[in-house]
Amino acid sequence: MALVQAEVEKHYRSHLVDFIRNQGGHITIDGVSVRLAKQFGFCYGVERAIDLAYAARKVFPDKPLYILGEIIHNPEVNDQIRSMGIKNIIGDNREAEVGDLQEGDVVIVPAFGTEIGIQREIKDRGCVIVDTTCGDVMSVWKRVTKNANESVTSIIHGKAQHEETKATASRAVGKGNGHYLILLTLADTDYVCDYIRHGGDKDAFLARFPEDSRSPGFDPEVHLQTVGVANQTTMMRGETEEVQRRIREAVLDRDGEEEGLNNYRFFDTICGATQERQDALRQMLDHDKMDLLLVVGGYNSSNTSHLAEMGEACLPTYFIRNASRLESREKIVHFDLHASHEVESRDWLPEGDLIVGVTAGASCPNNLIEDAVFRVFELRGINRDRVLRGG
User: Fold this and answer.
1) Please, are residues 225 and 263 in contact by the beta-carbon 8 Å criterion?
2) How many CB atoms lie within 10 A of CB 151?
3) What are the residue ranges of helices labelled H in the chain?
4) Which of 74, 236, 269, 380 is buried most deeply by CB count within 10 Å?
5) Is the pLDDT of residue 1 over 80?
6) C-alpha to C-alpha distance for 26 and 103, rounded to whole angstroms
7) What is the 3-state secondary structure (H, E, C) of 228-265?
8) What number does CATH give the domain 44-134?
9) Could you tell me if 266 and 244 are in contact, meaning their C-beta atoms sit under 8 angstroms apart?
10) Cα 180 to Cα 152: distance, rounded to the nearest angstrom
11) What are the residue ranges of CATH 3.40.1010.20 in the chain?
12) What is the DSSP string of 312-356?
């Protein structure tokens, strides 16, 4: 593991980021300042997943290696994994199929886990499984499995198409006696709360929530009687807490205090690293003067997207995959959360004295943050050597 960690560090570490952190998290040269959030970038779970993927390649140098989708939600990291000869067998970019697996093949389960049916099939094929699933995710699985065993419906706050939420939902069914409903928005939550309080049109309810958002055979007249709220671990804490509060209030309104408390369960399953990064950005937004914010990371990263949402509410914010999107002083290419694709913005970099905030989600390596910081200074005519010297 020492050799593996040295290799991972060589690929993803940033001396510049370390330097800026040692300077108190900010650097200023010729009136251009960059401020880093106190918490950003790789979390422990992501580091562990990458370490285990690299280790698998070393331990099984001559065996076919496969991975169930992306190791994490960062394209540069996933490209590096692919360059090591590890083939993807899940999703749009798959290079092989589960049906191609042979006994003894090595299969890596990514940080957000996988659906229980897929994991069972791989095991039944006699594959060697390298499980990098984050411990926070497995904590949610334990809770929803307990719900299923006790015929409690799991209401999951998350994105139905996200790998983690699909993995969680598969465990919320248990041995067939459990049910789940996936809610993304507070509007969805209010709709469910109204049904809990007053009942309603079952067909309209099922039309509102497509099949990938509910368990097979879900019946709102039956399966909203006793519920437990869980969540995708990378959602916004405040929003998940609001989902919990509204569902609880609806159940108590319907059943009364005593019986209602027996028919409602919740637990805190927000990832600690996700919360730390949200808290650090909130502190920046509330207390630091900034002209604009750069959020660096993969566009399909849920926790990174939430950082961009937070920034957008306060100041000009640009969600970029990497430094190549900072094309010039006049043009930046960034991800539009509402349109769900990249867009171009013009005249994004102000003249004169400038303060740029930078943060990144838990799946973004420090070397990509370094590249973005270098590029900001470069666009204002300040070369790398001066940045590395701190002026």
Assistant:
1) yes
2) 13
3) 2-12, 15-22, 44-59, 75-83, 116-124, 135-149, 163-172, 186-198, 202-208, 220-223, 237-255, 257-262, 272-287, 302-312, 366-379, 384-389
4) 74
5) no
6) 52
7) EEEECCCCCHHHHHHHHHHHHHHHHHHHCHHHHHHCEE
8) 3.40.50.11270
9) yes
10) 9
11) 10-43+272-389, 136-266
12) HTTS-EEEESSGGG---SSEEEEEETTTTEEEEEES-S-SSSEEE
Rg (CA), the chain: 23
Tokens encoding 315: 């100041």
Q: Where in the sequence numbering do the catalytic residues fall? A: 164
Tokens of 109: 């389960």
Give yes or no for a contact between 333 and 341, defined as CB atoms under 8 angstroms apart.
Answer: no
Q: Crossing angle, helix 186-198 and helix 237-255, to 10 degrees? A: 10
Which of 71, 76, 21, 35 lies closest to 51 in space, CA to CA? 71
> Who's near 310: CB < 8 A, 6+ residues apart?
278, 281, 282, 285
Task: List pLDDT tens digits, range 86-108.
Answer: 999 988 788 999 999 999 999 99
Is the CATH code 3.40.50.2000 the one for domain 136-266? no
109 phi and psi angles, rounded to 5 deg: -90, 125
Token pair for residue 233?
């671990």
pLDDT in tens, 237-278: 889 999 999 999 999 999 999 999 999 998 777 788 888 999
